[in-house]
Specification:
The structure is a single chain. With 674 residues, the chain is of the alpha/beta class. It has an 8-stranded mixed barrel. Strands 1-2 form a two-stranded antiparallel sheet. The longest helix is centred in the middle third of the chain and has 48 residues.
Length: 674
């Protein structure tokens, strides 16, 4: 149970994924090394020049860069997991790794050198750097931007890492300086000098155990163990490794790759009912012939799978024991000091022994023993594949990362769209300003009549614009003004004009019907504006009908409901405008403290061919509103047939071109006289 918890520890899963991301580089490097062997054969035949492809140089270059590649891969995954900006995190982590690990440094002559660059230093340096960066980035006081809508979210996330990144680098610099002082003090040299010296065979066994355990937890075993032994033996990266018996290691302990897994794809292909693994086996078998088994380790998987821990550790050590026993009994001797680690099985044993058949038979025995070791565990793995717990956990994590990434992308897309809309809005505003120059706002009024008697009962206030030439235009400019955040200013202008007009009518001795005004939520949700309106209306002894669109009301239900109560308490009436225009909420209607409901014109004018169903919908809507205690106004009535329809459905009041078009104030005065 504890091993299973450890295997699913988040950091180890990140390490596994980081090494998995290096797999393409590993395979490319191995293919190049294979091609170098082919080029050597062709060079001996005079087909290509000698050294046409230098596989050893490619292998050494990869070995040199693996720690840095791992730093980039791991920091990228950690940035995604901790929701940090990935590019900035990778760069900051890379600088910290280079400074702390000694991967690169400049000597007194100005040359760039490398000494302790290994996976052993890369992993902790990366973990510490990204963890510190995440810790510092959580403090809002260290961020430049917090909820600034005018700055791109991507730019915010990047610049907000400036101070946390600086603090992270300073902390890593202190840690690196401390390690350098520690090394200069010779503490490690004194400690290692006190330890008992390992014999050659003991060193090989310890190296292999460290390598296998590292591989099992998703860390490249050979590079980890080699890095540790280089530090212990103070061997620079540019020099040969420290492990003796390397031929035995490459030829007998690593048949098919780490863990001596050459037999695994063969066993899978011969195992009945192992369909889930066969594609992995078929893909990995050609590489296993050249001792490359990363596909098998990560694809089966063997690493981070407690089921394969025992055979993964046991097979190489059993092979070593068999080989040493055969050498001790004189079955064969090692005659070649070194061999390419990618040499295929059987040929490698033949080559290192100077053509001894005993060495080949010994390697065949090792392969047979490895088959017997791995086979029962593969049978259990077939059962394990039916409940892939790790796969479900990874899918769950991947789903979170997918959603989180998409949210960030949508946030950036919304920001870009918003900025584009703002730029277009500014351009439209500039054009509107040119149109408004020299003109003035004025009011038109549309009559509201009783549905039965057609008597005038009210006037709805409508805003118009008169340009410098005297031309009157409808309020097509309002969306532009609203987009620029001027809706409240527009409402205040309308109220100012309304109060002035009412004073003029009263001065002329006109008896006024109820005046309706449309108010936007920005005005209604501004307490000082509402308070000033109520005070002025009370002073002038004027009581309005205030129309609020259903969309406006439902978007801010609680706040607007309180405002509606205050307006009705001050003597004003409230009407819900455009009911049925959008996503009408009947539950919202129930909670409204309004006096009337104005039906949207779409309910009055049903689509062509839907007149009967439209009448049913209209009649039901009117009855519903009446049952809830609302008076009902039908707007958009433009013909006699529509008037007769709404009268038949029982509406109380009517507005539309048929009963009265919007008109200026002087025509309204004549309407009063009539």
């Amino acid at each position: 149970m504890y091993l299973n918890r450890l295997i699913h520890f988040k950091t180890l899963l990140l390490l596994r994924e980081a090494f998995t991301s290096l797999l393409p580089v590993v395979l490319v490097m191995n293919i190049v090394v294979l091609l170098s062997g082919l080029s050597d054969v062709l060079a001996s035949q005079g087909v290509v020049a000698e050294g046409f492809i230098n596989g050893n140089e490619v292998s050494r270059l990869y070995f040199f860069l693996v720690p840095f590649f791992l730093n980039i891969s791991l920091s990228t995954l950690m940035a995604k997991e901790k929701e940090l900006d990935q590019v900035s995190t990778v760069l900051i982590s890379a600088v910290c790794f280079l400074r702390v690990s000694g991967f690169l440094f400049i000597d007194s002559t100005g040359q760039i050198l490398s000494f302790q660059g290994s996976v052993i230093t890369s992993v902790p340096a990366t973990l510490v750097a990204v963890t510190l960066l995440h810790y510092f980035s959580r403090f809002s006081s260290l961020q430049f931007f917090r909820g600034r809508s005018e700055v791109s979210p991507v730019l915010q996330r990047t610049l907000n890492l400036l101070i946390p990144g600086l603090l992270t680098m300073l902390c890593c610099e202190l840690v690196g300086h401390g390690f350098r002082l520690f090394f200069k003090a010779g503490v490690f040299s004194i400690l290692f000098a006190a330890l008992p010296k390992l014999q050659d065979i003991q060193e090989v066994i310890l190296f292999k155990l460290i390598s296998q355990l590292s591989w099992f937890f998703g860390i490249h075993g050979e590079y980890s163990a080699d890095g540790l032994f280089r530090i212990l033996n103070e061997i620079p990266s540019s020099q040969a490794g420290s492990i003796h018996f390397k031929v035995l290691h490459d030829v007998f302990m690593n048949i098919g790759g780490s863990g001596s897994t050459f037999v695994v794809p063969l066993a899978i292909l011969s195992l009945p009912g192992s369909a889930p693994f066969k594609s992995i086996a078929q893909l990995s078998l050609p590489f296993a012939l050249f001792n490359v088994n990363e596909i098998l380790l990560f694809g089966l998987p063997i690493i981070l799978n407690p089921l394969f821990l025992a055979p993964f550790l046991l097979a190489p050590l059993v092979n070593l024991a068999i080989a040493l026993t055969a050498i001790h009994l004189g079955v064969f001797t090692i005659s070649a000091p070194a061999i390419n680690w990618m040499s295929p099985p059987l040929y490698s044993a033949y080559a290192v022994s100077g053509g001894s058949g005993g060495a080949v038979l010994t390697q065949l025995l090792c392969i047979a023993i490895d088959m017997s070791i791995y086979y029962p565990f593969l049978l259990l793995a077939k059962q394990q594949s039916k409940t892939p717990l790790d796969l479900r956990k990874r899918l769950h994590s991947d789903a979170y990362q997918f959603v989180n990434t998409e949210i960030n992308r949508q946030e950036e897309r919304r920001f870009i769209t918003q900025k584009i809309d703002q730029v277009r809005g500014m351009e439209e505003t500039q054009r509107l300003l040119q149109q408004l120059k020299g003109g003035q706002f004025l009011l038109y009024f549309q009559p509201k009549v009783d549905a039965k008697s057609k008597a005038l009962v009210g006037l709805e206030t409508l805003l118009r614009f008169q340009d410098a030439g005297g031309k009157i235009t409808p309020p097509t400019f309002l969306p532009i003004l609203y987009q620029q955040g001027l809706s409240k200013a527009v409402d205040q202008k309308v109220l100012s004009l309304v109060f002035d007009q009412i004073k003029q009518w009263r001065g002329d001795g006109q008896k006024l019907p109820q005046i309706s005004i449309n108010l936007d939520k920005d005005f209604l949700l501004d307490p000082p504006s509402v308070k000033a309106f109520i005070a002025q209306a009370k002073q002038e002894e004027i009581y309005f009908e205030l129309e609020i669109t259903e969309h406006t009301y439902t978007s801010e239900v609680q706040s607007l409901a309180s405002v509606v109560r205050d307006l009705r308490a001050a003597g004003h009436q409230v009407s819900i405008d455009d009911f049925g225009a959008g996503y009408s909420s009947l539950t919202t209607l129930v909670s409204l403290e309004a006096d009337s409901v104005k039906l949207d014109r779409k309910l009055v004018a049903a689509p062509e061919g839907e007149s009967q169903r439209g009448q049913v919908l209209l009649q039901s809507s009117v009855k519903l509103c009446h049952d809830l205690g609302f008076a009902v106004v039908a707007e958009g009535v433009e013909s006699l047939s529509q008037l007769q329809l709404v009268q038949h459905c029982g509406v109380d009041f009517v507005q539309g071109y048929y009963t009265g078009k919007p008109m200026p104030s002087d025509q309204v005065s004549r309407l009063f006289q009539a």
